[in-house]
Amino acid sequence: MEKRFDVTTIGEGSIRLSVGEGRRLNTASEFQVGISGAEANVVGGLSRLGWKTSWISSLPETPVGKRIRNEYRSHGINVEGIYWSQGSRVATLFVEYAKQPRSTKVIFDRENTCFTKITSEQVNWEYLLDSKIIHLTGITVPLSENTLQIAREAIEKAHRNDVKVSFDVNYRNNLWSSKEKACNTLLPMIQNVEILFCNKRDAQTVFNCSGTDEEIIKELQILSNANKVVMSRGSEGAMGLENGKIYSEQARDVVIIDRIGAGDGLAAGVLHGWLQGDFAKGLKYGMVTSALALSQYGEIVNTNVEELNQLLGEKKPDDIVR
Q1: In terms of Cα–Cα distance, which of 281, 179, 176, 265 is closest to 228?
Q2: pLDDT in tens, 85-102
Q3: Is the pLDDT score of 137 beyond 70?
C-alpha cells in the first residue's frame, strides 16, 4: 500500500528573533523575525525538492502559533497534524550574528511551551506512520519528560509497523544534565535505525568513540546497529557508512552567512538521495544542501532539484529551466 508521505517528523517550532552583524542583543531596538525548528528544517528542505512531507507539533492557537504554521506550510510541508493547544507559550531563540573576534550567539527560551507538554493522545499516530521514513532528532528528546516519551513511542511504533527511522543525535549541551545522561537515553533509541546522523564531536563526547574517523564511524554503526551512518566533520566534510563501505565527501567552499540549520540541510540532502535509492549520492547532495544552508539566512534550505543538480555538476547552468 502506497504511503501518503515520503518523510514525516515531530518536533518543536520556535520564533527566532535576530539582530544583524555589528549589533548586540543587550542594546537591540528591533529584531528580524524568523522561524526555527530542527525537524521541520529537514522536511522543509525535502518539500522544496519535491517530496511529500508532514510535521507534527503542538502550537498555541494564537497569531504567534499560526505564524509558525504559516511559515512551514509556505515551504510545502503538510501541517494537518498540528495539535492546537489552549496554552500560549512557544519557544523563542535570540540570535546575535557576529564576525571575528566574536562568534554568533544563540540564547534559547523553551521551557514550559505547548510542545513540551504534548501528550500521546494529542499525536495523530496514523498520520505520522503513513510515511516511508520518520525523521527524529536528539533535540526533542530532553525538552521534557513528555517529549522523551513521545520520541520513544514514535520509534517503537515505527519499528512495529515497519516504518524506517532516521535519527539525528544533535546533542546540545545546554539541554542535558550530563553527557552520561544523554548517552544512556539516546543509545537505546538509535538501535536499528535506518539512518543515524551524528557529528564527530558528538560521537566522541556522547558515545565515547575514539580513533581515526574511519574507526569512529564504524564504532557508531556497531553501537547503534544502524543500517546507514552519516558522520559530519565540519570543514572536513562528511563520511557515510553503508554495508561496511565508507564514503567520504569534502565540504563545499562557502561564504558563511548563517550557521544555524547546516546539519539539518545535510540531513535533507542525504534523505533526498535515500528516497531515490542512492545513499552514496545522498551524501553528495548533503554536502551541497549543507553549504546552501550556510550561505542563506533562515534555516530551511531554499532550493530546488534543478539548482541542486546544477551545483552537483550534473547540469550546466544553461540547462536549467527558470
Answers
A1: 281
A2: 998 899 999 999 888 888
A3: yes
User: Which residues face 202 on adjacent strands?
Assistant: none
Q: Report d(CA 82, CA 73) in Å as an integer.
A: 11
The three cell numbers locating residue 161: 509497523
Give the count of alpha carbons within 13 A of 126, CB side only.
0
Q: How many helices and strands (H and E) does the chain possess?
A: 10, 14
Distance CA(107)–CA(301), nearest Å, equals: 22
Phi, psi values for residue 103, rounded to 5°: -115, 160
Residue pair 72/99 in contact by the 8 Å Cβ criterion: no
At residue 234, the pLDDT reads 87
- Cell numbers at 277, concatenated: 535509492
Closest among 226, 311, 197, 269 to 41, alpha carbons compared:
269
156 pLDDT band, cuts 50/70/90, is: very high
Count the alpha carbons within 13 Å of 48 in the hemisphere toward its beta carbon: 21
Q: What is the pTM of this model?
A: 0.94
Separation between Cα atoms, residue 266 and residue 37, nearest integer Å: 15
Q: State how far the alpha carbon of 267 is from the alpha carbons of 30, 41, 272, 274, 289, in Å.
A: 32, 9, 8, 10, 9
DSSP per-residue string spanning 107-167: EEE-TT-TGGG--GGGS-HHHHHSEEEEEEETTTTTS-HHHHHHHHHHHHHHHHTT-EEEE
> Model confidence over 262-313: pLDDT tens digits?
999 999 999 999 999 999 999 999 999 999 999 988 899 999 999 999 999 8
Q: How far apart are CA 41 and CA 137, in angstroms?
A: 11
